[in-house]
Amino acid sequence: MDIMCSKCMEPWELSHALEVKSWGDAEELEDWVFNGKQIMACPCCKHQEMPPQFSPEQEELKQASDMLHDLLGDDVDGIASELEDFKLLMRRGPQ
Ligand SMILES: [Zn+2]
User: Fold this and answer.
1) In sequence order, what DSSP letters do the residues of 7-25 get, joined into one string?
2) CA distance 53 to 45
3) 10: Cβ–Cβ under 8 A, 6 or more apart, which residues?
4) What's the 42 CA to ligand 1 centre distance in angstroms?
5) Which of 24, 62, 86, 89 has minimal CB crowding within 10 Å?
């Protein structure tokens, strides 16, 4: 299951992100910003000056992700699983 970077929307394998957060050395952690278990910046965006540009779909997904982090806090498994559902719904489109 993936969890997304809150800044650039890059999907990260949940276990990998948490591993870096818990066990990463200083050099590795240099590329990441965490807020609790939420990824605030990742190696894809940490050192970029420009804010990333999102498509409307990505924007919607980002809002959903931010909302889930607010609602579920540190329950990143729950967040990742809810996001999977949300992505499926988006792909299916309005009924
Ligand atoms: Zn990022």
Assistant:
1) TT--EEEHHHHHHHHHH--
2) 12
3) 4, 42, 44, 45
4) 4
5) 89
Dist. CA 76 → ligand 1 center (Å): 17
Rounded to whole angstroms, the Cα distance separating 94 from 38 reads 29
The Cα 23–Cα 28 span in angstroms is 9
Cα angle, residue 75 at apex, residues 39 and 70 outer, rounded to 5°? 65
**Distance (Å) from CA 95 to ligand 1 centroid:** 32
What's the 14 CA to ligand 1 centre distance in angstroms?
14
The pLDDT assigned to 95 comes to 63
Rounded to the nearest angstrom, the distance between the alpha carbon of 17 and the centre of ligand 1 is 12
Interhelix angle 56-72/76-92, rounded to 10 degrees, is 150
What is the CA(44)–ligand 1 centre distance, in A? 5
